[in-house]
């Protein structure tokens, strides 16, 4: 059996669920993949724990807000751990920070520098420093995987990188933001913008501060990660033409509906004659047979149009964060499969 | 630069287009993948050609019905070639034969036995002898890839094998047969069965002999390949409960439509308590928010429901066979990427 020593940073929604998945899938990992994944250290914002023989996964998954420091040392940071502990792979699942990428960015740098594979669902470091991190991974001959960082559990990046191999991608169109989808969906049924925002917040698909969603930033981040990891660009947040939906007039939505089209918030990359891509996030009135038009308000989806593979679309219905968390298992098995 | 010596069998729609794609993508293969793919031999039903320094790809792609034997030796067979020629990879693209799997099956056996990777779009050998061929590939430490054998250019097998890694797949539902989709689509608009079949034949999505499609065999074949390659089964054609659509009454279709549901021909695998899957191809009246319900009549699509990754669907709009042919390039780059 191949033993893999793992370190985790972040025990929120995604991190805890991922550890729960690792625990539930222990037999599958052993029997089907010949893998024994051993969590030798973990940290959250308040503390950390180190256990060379492996932390008890069920116990870590069940902390539910209590710091992992209670199983180890309060105040122990992930950077302390990454300096001291030898491990094969680092899972990074701290919250998104779009200004600095921290604490994820420094931790990913440290892990790559120490020759660990890195798997992350954290959009911050990827949106801010993808090129640098990819170069670090190459220099250390390790992998940087983030199949769950763009559209939750949907293998958006994998399809683009692997299944469109050899093709020129002509267009990427994606419904990446649940809050905006849900708001537009409710407005198309007659709700005002403010009621629709409140409804999205009640539904749990929109933050209490809706700005990141309705101003388009969440979509911009995801598009930049896609552009860098799939389209081979070196794109930054300000390379994306960004249109928000804040204070959208109800009539504008209903007019589109009356015309037989479907108003969607779309993140889009379009190939240009010069070999570059135009990047844009904003409203589009789609014809009803467009693959994104059929998506429900709580689905995420992507459409790839390429010179070789026709028009390939993919979508996910993700009722809770387990698919996003499981993307870290997928990435682990891609590395060690 | 890494040189890959390739052999091809079959120069019909798929084989010729694939060679055309290899020719067009020569620079991409060299610059991005450091690969020089050299077609050292090829055969069709009338003859073959061998060229240790590589056949001219543009010339092979442009034969348009003239036998490759005219560039080499009439009567030279693929089995002769596979005995004599040293190569790294074998591309098999002869027509589907559901009775014997030939000539593809013997050629794939021979290539695997000689230690060549095999890439094929040919459903016959995969449906009839998947287990044997996979074992042969393992014994020779080579890969058997067929990402284009189930739903054309859609990476159905790849998504199931790689992106759902670690999960228990609970259900697979797929629209795999264009002829049946198109016939049902036309009948839902009021056409009789016979007019709809004729319309599908004129559209080019149904064979002149429609039996393989409307009796469900084409769907059964694809489901068996999926079951074996993605679900880990050892399934055979007669393990699938098969319902055809021959002589379907127009009223039956219109009744479903009137009920607000969408009548689709669905290939389906459903996980059972005992860890096995029930396999079935037949009609289903889908609710309008089912991912397959939104597919157009000329799309193919698959829906995977699993314990970890929610509900993931994928679809392709493939106007001509280039995506299917390009799947062999995708598989080549999976092996040598």
What is the N-to-C succession of helices and strands of chain A? EHHEEHEHEHEHEHEHHHHEHEEEEH
Counting DSSP E segments of at least 2 residues, the number of strands of chain A comes to: 13
What are the segments of chain A in which pLDDT stays under 50 over at least 5 consecutive residues? none
CATH architecture annotation name of the largest domain in chain A? 3-Layer(aba) Sandwich
Largest sheet of chain A: 7 strands, mixed
Oligomer: homodimer
Summed up, the domain count of chain A is 2
Share of helix of chain A, binned: 25-40%
Query: What do the pLDDT scores of chain A average to?
Result: 96
CATH topology of the largest domain in chain A: Rossmann fold
| Rg of chain A | 21 Å
Name the CATH homologous superfamily of the largest domain in chain A.
NAD(P)-binding Rossmann-like Domain
**Largest interface by Cβ-Cβ < 8 Å:** A-B, 43 and 43 residues
């Amino acid at each position: 059996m191949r033993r893999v020593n793992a370190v985790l940073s972040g025990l929120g929604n995604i991190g805890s669920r991922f550890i729960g998945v690792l625990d539930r899938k222990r037999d599958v990992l052993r029997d089907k993949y010949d893998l024994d994944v051993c969590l030798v250290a973990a940290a959250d914002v308040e503390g950390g724990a180190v256990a060379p023989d492996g932390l008890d996964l069920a116990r870590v998954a069940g902390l539910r807000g209590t710091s992992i420091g209670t199983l180890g040392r309060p105040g122990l940071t992930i950077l302390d751990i990454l300096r001291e502990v030898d491990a094969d792979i680092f899972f990074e699942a701290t919250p998104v920070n779009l200004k600095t990428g921290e604490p994820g960015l420094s931790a990913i740098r440290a892990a790559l520098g120490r020759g660990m594979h890195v798997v992350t669902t954290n959009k911050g470091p990827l949106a801010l420093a993808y090129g640098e991190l990819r170069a670090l991974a190459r220099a250390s001959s390790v992998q940087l995987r983030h199949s769950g960082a763009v559209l939750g559990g949907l293998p958006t990046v994998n399809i683009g990188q692997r299944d469109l191999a050899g093709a020129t991608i002509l267009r990427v169109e994606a419904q990446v933001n649940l809050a905006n989808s849900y708001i537009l969906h409710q407005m198309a049924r007659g709700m005002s913008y403010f009621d629709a925002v409140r409804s999205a917040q009640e539904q749990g698909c929109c933050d209490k501060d809706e700005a990141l969603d309705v101003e388009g930033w969440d979509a911009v981040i995801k598009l930049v990660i896609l552009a860098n990891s799939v389209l081979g660009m070196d794109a930054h947040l300000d390379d994306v033409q960004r249109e928000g939906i804040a204070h959208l007039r109800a009539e504008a939505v209903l007019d589109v509906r009356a015309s037989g089209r479907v108003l969607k918030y779309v993140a889009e990359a379009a190939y240009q004659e010069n070999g570059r891509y135009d990047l844009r996030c904003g409203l589009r009135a789609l014809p009803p047979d467009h693959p994104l038009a059929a998506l429900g308000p709580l689905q995420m989806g992507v459409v790839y149009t390429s010179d070789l593979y026709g028009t390939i679309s993919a979508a996910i219905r993700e009722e809770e964060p387990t698919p996003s968390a499981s993307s870290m298992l997928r990435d682990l098995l891609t590395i060690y499969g």
